[in-house]
Write a structure and sequence with these properties.
The complex is a heterodimer of chains A (286) and B (446). Chain A is α+β, with helices and mostly antiparallel strands and 286 residues long. Chain A has 11 helices and 8 strands. Among the domains of chain B are: 158 residues, NADH-ubiquinone oxidoreductase 51kDa subunit (Rossmann fold, 3-Layer(aba) Sandwich); 71 residues, no CATH class. Chain B has 446 residues and is of the alpha/beta class. The chains are: A alpha+beta (286), B alpha/beta (446).
Chain lengths: 286, 446
């Protein structure tokens, strides 16, 4: 009885030793040399795996950072500038701050501004509705209101406003990952610089039809009149295909374009209310 | 009596509501202005040949097909091109339209406008296909696939049967029924011509058994033609779908993702047969079609022979105006047609009907929970599991949806029709098809 135990212990020990030797050499032979920085950086990343950086997930983003050796053209919208400050010492480079961004919905075709001409009661998916028809308002570029962007948001930063039928972005929660930008079949949502004190000016319309036709469906459509282009002292506004676009890099938030826009298509956000009488004075101050 | 043929799995029988069945075809007066869309077919847009202030005659070529899958567009009226503008189409998007102001009634030379029947046709298959292409013939059932492409038989494939779809399984629609009663001989000559073009040994015409007068008349006239068989079929929706009709008439199954030519069949609509007759024997391009204008509350449901480009609104006025109780106006039939958001849209080559639904009919009921009754599975003519596809799409499992053959769905709507919980099964499947289709295309690109 005792010998059986001894033999089996010895046999197991020998098998164990041989396996250990094989495993050692195999692991030497097939060793994957991985930069330890990848693990360090991957731990620093927020692990949201949102894809906002343009890579498959946080790990894949960390690999790219280490391969590149710096953070030029790479940005994690969730971590933002704080994260850049943490990662840069690991790579041994200087932290370059980036202007924080936020998603904006460039359509103001609310139920009041663009009354419905038809009722849509099929599948609640913008991607599908877009293939089917122009939309309840008749605007072929405007918001369809089925909420694909809200479904795509992983940060609870969007909701559909029942009153207006348009998505609303909660600026505190939005990390500018761009998931909604990709989800929107009509490219209405854009990532723009957050701006000083959360102030932003943008053209809230993406309609490329001629002015008269655009106005037929929506009272706040950009009609491509070009008044804002002339009014802008900083050459920040361009007009293409009957549609004005404000370059957020050049815009100095002077609000002159907002005043001249005949259809109120340009929107100012988070500005203090104007003093009606001294309107011009306020503009100059800014 | 032997049991009537039909397809093997699934199918439903919605209320037929064929109010305009006994009505003769009425020639609709030519409107003052017509709006001819440049793209009326499946495939690439045609390129414009006319400019503003050009004078056109009936049958003048307006737009020419450049791409492989495309079709010519001819002028349905004589007059002057008033403008070439972008006009809202049935979907609400702006599409290029040729607006023609009607003046006089001049026909292009060589078009035989008489009602005399020409039976002899000594053209070769190639010549017939060329005429179909030149005259802009497309599938008249609603899909508007350019017909000539169907008759370019790939090398190594033999056509056993030419199948003519005279099923008209959609409720309400009676345009095919009407032409079968009034243009019987023309249709049969057309079928004979198409049979020649396809090289088929035999032509099978499938007609549902709710059109007994049409079956009797077609059978009577078909006696004087060789190898054309009129086959009554059991009334079941969606028998007019290509694959289901082939199965019903020949017992052959078209494999998943393949075309009817795989099983030696070419399928065309009975309306296409009539258009082919007019193109080949009378030299007449596709400039008019029969449209059923109907609905439960419509005063006078009719079958109208309408020039392409006539605004739908004028058709509705002709049958007694838009009923007050209208909830939806649909281009096509109630099962597969599309709702139109604007009544100014013109009749195109694919408009088989204009249906005005009452408010009660058009309103959707609130969807309830799935009760696992599997009725959708038993009615699916493609043998799919709609409840499962709905769940897969809802949870965005696109790979699994593809494995469960979501792309085989023919969007007939039987599942949604039968569902006792009124679940929006087809809506979800359509969303899934769009997504899975995009994934498959991006994979093919790589």
């Amino acid at each position: 009885m005792g010998t059986i135990i001894i033999y089996s212990v010895i046999a197991l020990a020998v098998i164990g030793f041989i396996s250990a030797v094989i495993l050692y050499f195999v692991s030497q032979k097939f060793k994957v040399i991985e930069d330890p920085k990848i693990d360090i950086i991957a731990d620093l990343l927020p692990a949201a795996n949102c894809g906002g950086c343009g890579y498959a997930g946080c790990r894949s983003f960390a690999e790219t950072i280490v391969r590149q050796g710096n953070m030029d053209n790479l940005f994690c919208p969730v971590g933002g500038n704080d994260l850049v400050k943490l990662i840069s010492p690991v790579l041994g480079v200087e932290a370059v701050e980036r202007e924080p961004q936020i998603a904006v919905v460039r359509c103001n075709g609310t139920k009041a501004n663009a009354p419905s001409k038809a009722i849509y009661d099929s599948a609640m998916s913008c991607a599908f509705a877009n293939t089917l028809f122009a939309g309840e308002t008749g605007c072929p570029n405007g918001c369809l209101g089925c909420g694909d962007c809200v479904a795509a948001c992983k940060f609870d930063a969007m909701y559909m406003d029942k009153e207006t039928g348009l998505p609303v972005i909660i600026s505190d929660n939005c990390v500018a990952c761009g998931a909604c930008v990709t989800a929107c079949p009509r490219s209405i949502i854009e990532l723009r610089n957050k701006g000083k004190r959360d102030r932003r000016i943008y053209v809230s319309c993406v309609n490329k039809e001629k002015g008269a036709i655009a106005r037929r469906n929506c009272s706040v459509a950009c009609i491509g009149c070009g008044k804002c282009v002339k009014a802008c002292p900083f050459d920040a506004i361009t007009l293409e295909n009957n549609l004005a676009y404000i370059d957020y890099e050049k815009c100095k938030l002077c609000r002159k374009c907002v005043e001249v826009c005949p259809t109120d298509a340009i929107i100012e956000l988070n500005f203090p209310p104007r003093r009606v009488k001294e309107e011009t004075a306020v503009v100059e101050e800014n | 009596m032997a049991r009537l043929k039909t397809f093997r799995i699934g199918g439903i029988h919605p209320e037929e509501n064929k109010f305009s069945a006994a009505k003769p075809i009425e020639v609709f007066p030519i409107p003052e202005k017509v709006y001819v869309p440049v793209t009326q077919h499946l495939g690439a847009p045609s390129s414009l040949l006319v400019k503003r202030n050009d004078t056109v005659k009936i049958g003048t070529l307006l737009a020419k097909a450049d791409a492989f899958i495309s079709a010519n567009v001819h002028s349905p009226v004589s007059g002057t091109v008033e403008k070439i503008d972008e006009i809202i189409d049935a979907s609400g998007y702006r599409k290029a339209n040729i607006v023609i102001k009607v003046e006089g009634n001049e026909w292009e030379d060589g078009i035989d406008n008489s009602s005399a029947i020409i039976k002899e046709c000594n053209l070769s298959a190639k010549e017939i296909t060329d005429i179909l292409k030149e005259k802009g013939i497309v599938g008249m059932g609603g899909a508007t696939f350019p017909s000539h492409i169907k008759y370019m038989i790939p090398e190594g494939k033999d056509v056993d049967y030419l199948i003519i779809n005279a099923v008209e399984c959609e409720p309400y629609l009676t345009s095919d029924h009407a032409i079968m009663l009034e243009k019987t001989e023309e249709i049969l000559i057309g079928i004979d011509i198409l049979k020649k073009a396809s090289g088929a040994k035999k032509a099978l015409v499938g007609i549902e058994n709710n059109k007994l007068d049409a079956i009797a008349k077609m059978q009577e006239v078909a006696k004087s033609f060789k190898d054309i068989e009129i086959q009554p079929l059991r009334v079941k929706y969606p028998q007019g779908a290509e694959k289901q009709l082939i199965r019903a008439l020949t017992k052959r199954e078209v494999p998943s993702g393949k075309l009817p030519i795989e099983v030696g069949c070419v399928v065309n609509n009975v309306g296409t047969a009539l258009a082919s007759y007019e193109a080949v024997q009378k030299n007449k391009p596709l400039i008019e079609r029969v449209v059923t204008v109907t609905g439960k509350a419509v005063k006078n449901p009719s079958n109208l022979l309408v020039r392409i480009g006539t605004p739908v609104k004028e058709l509705i006025d002709h049958v007694g105006g838009l009923p007050e109780d209208t909830g939806k106006v649909i281009s096509g039939g109630p099962m597969m047609g599309k709702a139109i958001s604007n009544l100014d849209v013109p009749v195109t080559k694919g408009t088989s009907g204009v249906l005005m639904m009452t408010k009660a009919e058009s309103k959707r009921k609130k969807p309830l929970n799935c009760i696992r009754c599997a009725k959708c599975v038993s009615v699916c003519p493609m043998g799919l599991e709609p409840y499962l596809l709905q769940q897969l799409v809802d949870s965005e499992r696109w790979e699994d949806a593809e494995l469960n053959r979501i792309m085989d769905c023919i969007e007939c709507g039987s599942c949604q029709f039968i569902c006792p919980s009124k679940r929006e099964l087809l809506d979800y499947i359509r969303v899934g098809k769009a997504r899975v289709g995009a994934i498959i295309r991006s994979r093919a690109k790589r």
